[in-house]
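Exercise: predict the fold of this chain.
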Amino acid sequence: MSPSLSAIRNRVKLYKGHKVRYKALKGRRKTEEKLGVITETYPHVFTLYVESQHSTVSFSYAELLTKEVELEILPEKEQLMQF
């Protein structure tokens, strides 16, 4: 059984400030895989700061539910700065 949007939202909220590796489908066999930090969580989206691009990207919780975006929480010892 797949988790609900509220369960996904609550789980992402728990890891605010943690370093993650994300993999996002960008269409027609293209994927983007980068490291980032979960900076904010909002009712419908969350944001990641991507250090390599010096920018912020946002994703919806529905993208996690449909597996268009995958998050991997990295161990504490590899954390970037906390926001």
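Check your answer against the key: The radius of gyration is 12 Å.
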